[in-house]
Design goal:
The protein is an all-alpha fold. Helix content is 64%, strand content 0%. The protein has 19 helices and no strands. α3 packs across α10, α4 packs across α10 and α18 crosses α19. The longest helix has 49 residues. The protein is extended, with a radius of gyration of 31 Å.
Length: 511
């Protein structure tokens, strides 16, 4: 995710720079980076009345949302960083970039080879390099700042060019030495390679390449230092930022309202089914728990069609929720395969140590990439069936037992292949138990660290389920903290439309 000027405000950069400023130039050297830099407020007011939204207001709201998403990602994802990414090899965009860059550097080389040399393009490059080097400095590094401005004074260089007296190699060497003082230790090898480059045009090209890497290092260093601050203030920051979005774009809760409305309708339908059963009291008015409605809405996200837009209040966690859904789908298949194998083969393998884990190890690599459109689940299940049957026969042979007969072999292969079918009983059973576990997890108080009891049939994936469950509960509990007041207003409006609407001062419960 690129970090642009809108995403990294001047105030944040200034605050960070002031906190890390060196007291002298000698102390400043390398303090802008560290060795790991490149490794991988108040309750919102009630809704505003509808108003006409201009294009500029929409763009401002989009920028706010970008800021919000970036801040959230930095705070919750400890591995988030800016990466050096280029266009795919042989892609059209990559080819165009190569052609344009080659044309530029070829033109520069032809200018410098003229007699006398033409330095205008080279001077512009030195001016750009100067601005990049100055951007790496913290307040207080006055001596090195003055030195950079003095050596790379473009007016002076232009005057020297008029008299054919430009020491272009000397300027390049000064730039490389200065980069060596300012770069992260991980870039030391790049600096050595620059010093070994003789061709001036290739040298300038490589200088810009390394400067781009240094800018990425600086951005990641800023992110590392900004993360603790964001983590301490993220709830207030996100809530306030979203309120700003809502004031600029009153429709910014429409999808969230529809999401909660659907959850209410599901709950009413469930209550209606229960009241229609024999002996139920159908005269009493149904009582719906707001917490239950919200939790049911969160559960729907684990089966969400991510081809459609997610509720606005969950956009910052969309990728994480989608990854959890895909992981749960994979775990469901593994649990189904193990349950079918145990039920088909029975007592002959039940006492084999770690047999369920061996089955899981067969499934996992064959289910990699399940989320990709090109993935063929039927083909993967057939391959899993073949390997499972082979594993079972090998285990039976090792214990001196008869192997699977043709009927059992065909039955086991068929049941595994049919997991993918709609309303498959084994798949439906495992899915219900996974949903039950996740629902139980959301019902726990947020401060309670223990896991609910794992339902039967899921023991083979218990470790993975608990890991996914803890990630899911963390996302949900944080989302409730941030957007609870907004949810409270929506629930009050939908569940109690006759009640007077005031400011959203009631926080949603966090369990």
């Amino acid at each position: 995710m690129p970090l642009n000027d809108d995403q990294n405000s001047d105030s944040d950069s200034s605050r960070l720079s002031e906190s890390t400023a060196a007291s002298s130039d000698s102390e400043y050297s390398r303090q802008s980076f560290n060795s790991d830099s490149s490794s991988k407020p108040s309750t919102p007011a009630s809704a505003s009345p509808p108003k006409t939204v201009t294009f500029d207001e929409l763009m401002a709201a989009a920028r706010n949302l970008t800021d919000l998403t970036l801040a959230h990602e930095i705070a919750v994802n400890a591995n988030f960083c800016i990466k050096d990414e280029d266009f795919p090899q042989n892609s059209f965009a990559g080819t165009v970039k190569q052609i344009v860059h080659k044309a530029f550097w070829d033109h520069l080389e032809s200018e410098l080879n003229e007699d006398p040399p033409e330095y205008e393009h080279a001077i512009k490059l030195f001016e750009e390099i100067k601005e990049i080097l100055l951007s790496f400095l913290s307040p207080g590094a006055n001596r090195i700042q003055n030195q950079i401005c003095e050596v790379l004074d473009t007016d002076l260089i232009r005057q020297q060019a008029e008299h054919n007296a430009v020491d272009i190699h000397g300027l390049a060497n000064y730039i490389i030495n200065t980069m060596g003082k300012l770069c992260a230790p991980i870039r030391d090898n790049d600096i050595k390679q620059l010093k070994a480059t003789d061709n001036i045009v290739e040298l300038l090209r490589q200088i810009f390449r390394v400067l781009d890497l240094m800018k990425m290092d600086m951005a990641n260093y800023t992110i590392q230092n900004l993360r603790p601050y964001l983590q301490r203030h993220l709830v207030d920051y996100e809530r306030t930022k979203f309120q700003e979005i809502l004031e600029e774009t009153p429709s910014a809760l429409d999808l969230t309202t529809e999401w909660i409305k659907e959850s209410i309708e599901d709950e009413l339908s469930s209550i209606s089914d229960e009241s229609s059963s024999p002996g139920a009291d159908s005269s009493s008015k149904p009582i719906i728990s707001p917490t239950l409605v919200l939790n049911n809405g969160y559960l729907k996200l684990l089966q969400w069609d991510y081809g459609k837009t997610i509720p606005e209040t969950l956009i910052t966690d969309e990728v994480r929720l989608q990854e959890l859904r895909e992981k749960l789908n994979q775990l469901k298949i593994i649990a189904c395969v193990c349950l079918i194998t145990n039920n088909t083969v029975g007592a002959a393998i039940v006492d084999v140590p770690d047999f369920a884990d061996q089955l899981k190890r067969i499934c996992v690599p064959l289910l990699e990439g399940m989320n990709k459109k090109t993935f063929d689940l039927k083909e993967a299940l057939n391959a899993i069936g073949v390997q499972i049957c082979s594993k079972v026969n090998r285990s039976l042979t090792e214990r001196g037992l008869p192997t699977l007969n043709e009927e059992m072999h065909s039955n086991l292969m068929g049941q595994i292949a049919h997991i993918v079918e709609e309303n498959n009983p084994v798949s439906s059973l495992i899915d219900k138990r996974i949903q039950f576990f996740m629902r139980s997890l959301l019902g726990l108080p947020s401060f309670q660290k223990c896991m609910p009891t794992m339902p039967g049939g899921l023991s083979v994936i218990q470790t993975e389920m608990e890991f996914v469950g803890s990630q899911y509960a963390s996302i949900v509990n944080f989302n409730k903290q941030v957007y609870g007041p907004f949810y409270a207003n929506i629930l009050r409006k939908l569940l109690f439309p006759e009640a007077p609407m005031g400011k959203a001062e009631t926080e949603m419960p966090t369990n």
